[in-house]
Specification:
By secondary structure, the chain is an alpha+beta fold. It has a single domain (25-183), classed as Alpha-Beta Complex (Peptide Deformylase). It is built from three helices and seven strands. Bound molecules: zinc ion.
Length: 186
């Protein structure tokens, strides 16, 4: 989502994957829960982190790289010297605060468009890590906003859905134009 300067340092064979641009039916689909953690899923997670840091962004969800599976990656530390990559499989919000906060959100699938979105200020998230262990954590601030934005992707929901219809249509038309230009190689 938001811009970040972080770089993910690795010696593995990670590759970036193309990021789908809105509008695309795959960004509106409901992603499937993962029954278990396989090597293929670990590779997908590595590639998603690489793709996110390369963009650069602070979060990425499976459907954004065409994988309709419930997996997200995020790193809201925005510190290239101390990356804090987090991979969540089958993430669920199990508690949300009544307190709300507003952040200016963006999305790697909706490049260069930003808008303020109000969401619960803190959430508790439960997920499976890449060892198949259940984890839970209470998150606040930018981390809380980011994890809610990414979990929305797994349910086919985009941050522009929180905006009024006029603003949403305006952004969608800009993205259609961007996709036409990219298809023509401009
Ligand atoms: Zn997004």
């Amino acid at each position: 989502m938001l811009k970040a300067g972080a770089r993910w340092l690795t010696c593995g064979a990670m590759t970036t994957r193309p990021i789908l641009i809105h509008p695309d039916p795959r960004l509106r689909a409901i992603a499937k829960p993962l029954p278990d953690i396989s090597d293929e899923i670990r590779r997908l997670a590595d590639d998603m982190l690489e793709t996110m840091y390369d963009a650069p962004g602070i979060g990425l969800a499976g459907p954004q790289v065409g994988q309709l599976q419930r997996i997200i990656v995020l790193d809201c530390a925005k510190d290239p010297d101390a990356p804090q990559p987090l991979v969540m499989v089958n993430p669920q919000i199990v508690w949300s605060s009544d307190d709300r906060s507003v952040y200016e959100e963006g999305c790697l699938s909706i490049p260069d468009q930003y808008a303020e979105v109000e969401r619960p200020a803190s959430v508790k998230v439960r997920w499976l890590d890449l060892n198949g262990n259940e984890q839970d954590r209470e998150m606040e601030g930018l981390w809380a906003t980011c994890v809610q934005h990414e979990i929305d992707h797994l349910d086919g929901k985009l941050f522009i859905d929180y905006l009024g219809p006029m603003k949403r249509q305006l952004i969608t038309r800009k993205m259609e134009k961007l996709k036409r230009e990219r298809a023509r190689g401009e």
